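Handout, section 4.2: multi-component inputs.
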Amino acid sequence: MGTGALNRRSAMIATAGLLLSCSGFARAHEIVPERGLRFGLTPVFLTSDLELLGRLQAYLQRTMGVPVSLITRRTYQEITALLVSRQLDAAWICGYPFVAHRRDLQLVAVPLWRGKPLYQSYLIVDRDRPAEGLMDLRGDIHAFSDPDSNSGFLVTRAALAEHGLRPDTFFGRTFYTYGHRNVIRAVASGLAASGSVDGYVYDVVAELEPSLTVSTRILHASEPLGFPPIAAPRVPVDAGRLTALTDALLRMGEDPEGRAALRMLRLDGFAAEDVSLFDGIAAKAALVAASG
Amino acid sequence: MRLDPRTWPIAAKVPLAVAVLMMLVGIVLSERVLARLNETQEMHVRDLAQSYLDILSTGITESVLREDTWEVFDAITRAQDLSKGLRATEAIVTNAKGHVIAASNPRQHPVGSLVEVPNGGSPGMQPFRFEAGADVANATRVLAYPGRVVGVIHAAFDTSHLAVERREVLTALIVTNGILTLILAAAGWLLVTRMMAPIRVLSRHLGAAMEGYATPVPEATIARSGDEFRHLFGSYNALVKSMHEREDLARKLFDEQRLGSLGRLASALAHEINNPLGGLFNAMATLKTHGQYAAVRNNALGLLERGLVGIRDVVRTTLAMHRQETSGRSISAKDIADLRLLIVAEARRKSVTVAIRNSVDQDIPLPSTQIRQALLNLLLNAVAAAPPGSEVKLEAARHGDVLVLVVTDRGDGIPATGIDVLTGEDSSPPLRTGGGLGLWTTRRIVDELHGRIEVSQPSQGGTVIRIAVPIEKPIEELPHVA
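Output:
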């Protein structure tokens, strides 16, 4: 993903975006021996983004006092499978798989963005395109982020289902970019006429890499939905380690190293939230499931 | 400058030839250099294009098989970033049917649109098109997996920098060759001008020699010249010197001839005077002895008078002949008649009669001394050649503005060398040919008077020499003519 000349800033954005929006297509990246805490990450960690990984790992190890392994896999599905089968102590996943595997998982913490544990899904199109809503995009080449992504797939899929439509018949052609930043690139370059993208990633990219988003515009923003959470198996692999992890995440904003990592992610901190935060996503998943 | 190149000066022809040759060399060299440059550029672009296509095709074959639009697009973007030096301007990846999976410029080639599959597109075939000087090169790669065509990569590369390089090389070649041509042409001109300088000196001297008096090449000029021209100048100067010597000799000979003929005349004169002297002495003796007799005295005195008159006539003619006259004196009938007196003694000695038929009845404005000299020479030769008892004729007549003098004898005929000397065929000095000095002098006189000499030898024998001299009318006579 990304370009060879990608700088640390954009690498961070990609990291953040993928971390929080359940997109996959990662390269395996294991930093410490497989002892102690195993923490799963779905995003694409670029080789140049070792600084963020290093900070996160160092913070967790120091605060928890145990070795921490950061586990990445190519797709979100792989991480979800590892998590559900209890091969991971915890993982940063998306709201969609969280509600999909609700019975097997428990909520650890939810990131706070702009003070709230919420984000939106954006429908983006070319800046000069005169479309007014989703219904004007019929026949488009449409870019999705990931089939397991809430903001990059489920939201648009559910919106079509409300009209009794399916993406493969409504759009002329669809493809997955396996990254929200890639959705922005696809729309900006003209490869896709429209795309479904994580609103948090889009806004951060617009802030740090305006040249990428300048040729696109937000056609439609969804209602606020639960931010991609940190989840753990319902039966913890090691209850003590999970408690220590929860504590470390919730106190991240109080530690300088934790604040540095949060700053890089453009997040305010982590909060303990009720599972009902994800009811909106669950409703969309149910609608889609019902529409077949 | 005239159009015919043969008439151009060598100082222009050589630099021009140098320039033309240099231009030819320049064109051939430039062509070779550009051809080589084209080959190098094409090879360079081809290699880069292959490596670009290698990079791209390695990464995307499976994605093409899956028709994974984003993966292919991302690979294209990555390959273009990795191959910046190649300046890939466009890459289009299609499936086996030619439908676009992804292109570097999706707006121009949207996903799913149809792109022409190159002719004979088959696995392993790698068409490459590059035209020297063009701004774009195209390459195509057929993707096979495994052994089956799964897609095609069309790539275009910006080669405008190569076109610029080619133009720069061409400009540099033209400028360099142009400057070299100019320098060599100028050098050629300088060299030829320097080399031709002695030739010009010689040409100037020869021109002067043609128009008048030949002068030798100055020693200083000779010293400045190279060996070859020093030799040439030496030869020329020797020629000029010999010419001057010849002219001096000819002048001397002319004078000596005059003196020579004078000697012969003096001898004849002495003879003329000596002949009556005996009679005169006899008459004087008769007077001394028988002077008292009136009849004898009168008879003796008559003899004396006739004898003295004869001597006086001879002396007078000789004086008139050799008096230093101005050339302005006209020739008269008497001048021609007097020739008989000058030739008669020689004629009598050879028993030849001299007949003079003179139809000139008034003065003719031609120098009498020179004409009489010429005629005397011819008459003396005619008398010498004529057999005893024959007749030598002199005819003088005026035909309009030409004085015609004809000397005829019945001798054995004048030798060919004599004819050449008279008619000017042989212009060498008299001593070299050994011919008669008299003939040569006559020719010289007639030449000076702008006349013409014709020699004919009638079938009955003898020689006829005809002199025609144009009569220049004195200025004071012009009104009468008008």
